[in-house]
Amino acid sequence: MFTQILGNLDKQSIDSVIDKTNKLIKIPSNLYLYFLENIDLCYSIKLPRNIQKKFKLSCSHKNSFSFKFKNRKLIVIYVDKQIMQNQDALIGLLLHEISHIDQMDKKVYKQIYDGYNSSYTYNLKLFNSLKYNKDEIKKLFYDISLISILTLKDIYANKSLIDQKLTKYLLAHYKVEFNKKICPKPIFYKNLKIVKNDLNIVKTIFEFELSLLSVILPLYETKSAEKIVNIIESCYEVNIQTISEKCHCLITLYFADFKKKNFNEKFINLIFLKVYNLLK
Fold it and tell me: pTM (2 decimals)?
């Protein structure tokens, strides 16, 4: 394992986090770990030319992330003051990113992309039947595609950690994550006229709902479910029941078919259908 700290971070604290994490879950020996004080330091990481361009694209998303290219496995962790002061939260974030790498190794993410590709033609035809500007629909299709895939990836990563009894650290991570956000009042589609006139709002709605769902679903049947609900409700001033009602079909599918072969395809199809029904 290779570790590099960029910026003014306490090396001793970072080393302690890595050591404790390695006792909870085996860190791959061929993993490259980068801890950054500032998100812009991501661009200063030097990698082989055939990796650099794709890696910099991941940097542009301004979040901690996991990255795999052929045999190269990397994790970039952004460490702000808030998470630096909470070791369990930083361990939780690191565990979450390691879980992503683990899911990649197990071909789980290949299965997600296979599910997406299987549903691609049908969903594209569905969206193209909507009476909107074709360029705007094309952009929305790309946005919903990305949101759907990322949601599934987070569901699998979080579910894996929960199955390994590491919920405590996951909760600590999300508590800090939600506390450091501005947590704007979420937009729901009560006013259909406004939504239908601005497809960017549609993207924002589904990005918000599905990002919360990727946290809530894996925790739904654990003793920690109430804790995460309270954290989210406090942050966003929203009743989780509202989210549950909007995403009822996805929640039902998750509990009925999560371990079945065609779950990913069904999940993605349902998301596209929800968007379509909103706009038709």
Answer: 0.90
